Amino acid sequence: MHRIHLPVQQLDPELPLPRYAHHDDAGADLLCAENLTLQPGERRLVPTGLAVAIPEGWVGLVHPRSGLAVKHGVTVGNAPGTIDPGYRGEVKVLLVNTDRTEAVTFSRGDRIAQLLLQEVAQAEFSPVDELPETVRGAGGFGSSGVKTSA
């Protein structure tokens, strides 16, 4: 794993910079910049108090935190959220409470999502009359079989 330089503007200087919980983690924790409660089924765009300058050729991906999903049913509504290299506004997270009965409360500074950086390539789209054949072909959703438990 290699590291890249990521300029971060602390719009809320009282909140710490994103950090990795473990040295080999893929995602750095994003923090909540305000106190809030998400009611069952509610979604809200939550500020993180920071802006970033993603380098050209890279993308910032905002992923849910697995612990919040398992324990509280909270996920990122547009997962993964995309931060393009040209965006300089505040990073915000679209949190969704999927729990049907319980509200979830977040305090300022709580970890709400994780930021992953990934190299990207842009495609040169070219029309063709036919695509090359593969074993799979046009088999889509469920084409390889679905195992269900009773």
Q: What's the CATH architecture name?
A: Distorted Sandwich
| Net shape | globular
Order of helices and strands: EEEEEHEEEEE
How helix-rich are the residues, as a percent range? Answer: under 10%
Mean pLDDT: 94
Task: Fill in the CATH topology.
Answer: Deoxyuridine 5'-Triphosphate Nucleotidohydrolase, Chain A
Q: What is the fourth-level CATH superfamily?
A: Deoxyuridine triphosphatase (dUTPase)
Give the number of DSSP strands. 10
The domain tally reads: 1
Strands in their spatial order, largest beta sheet: 1-4-8-6
Quickly count the helices. 1
Main pleated sheet: 4 strands, antiparallel
Helix and strand content put the structural class at mainly beta
What tags apply to this protein structure?
Deoxyuridine 5'-Triphosphate Nucleotidohydrolase, Chain A; 4-stranded antiparallel β-sheet; 10 strands
Task: Characterize this entry briefly.
With 150 residues, the chain is mainly β. The chain has one helix at residues 66-72; strands at 8-10, 28-31, 36-38, 43-52, 58-63, 74-76, 81-83, 90-97, 104-106, 111-119. It is globular and about 55 Å long.
How would the blueprint of this fold be written?
Blueprint: E1 8-10, E2 28-31, E3 36-38, E4 43-52, E5 58-63, H1 66-72, E6 74-76, E7 81-83, E8 90-97, E9 104-106, E10 111-119
Antiparallel strand pairs: 1-4, 2-10, 3-9, 4-8, 5-7, 5-10, 6-8
What features would you describe in this structure?
By secondary structure, the protein is mostly beta strands. The protein has a single domain (8-119), classed as Deoxyuridine triphosphatase (dUTPase) (Deoxyuridine 5'-Triphosphate Nucleotidohydrolase, Chain A, Distorted Sandwich), CATH 2.70.40. The protein has one helix and ten strands. It has one helix spanning 66-72; strands at 8-10, 28-31, 36-38, 43-52, 58-63, 74-76, 81-83, 90-97, 104-106, 111-119. The strands form three sheets. Strands 1-4-8-6 form a four-stranded antiparallel beta sheet. It starts with 7 loop residues before the first strand and ends in a 31-residue tail after the last strand. The model has no long low-confidence stretch (mean pLDDT 94). Pathway: Pyrimidine metabolism; dUMP biosynthesis; dUMP from dCTP (dUTP route): step 2/2. Its EC number is 3.6.1.23. One of its GO terms (molecular function) is dUTP diphosphatase activity. Keywords: Hydrolase, Magnesium, Metal-binding, Nucleotide metabolism. It catalyses: dUTP + H2O = dUMP + diphosphate + H(+).
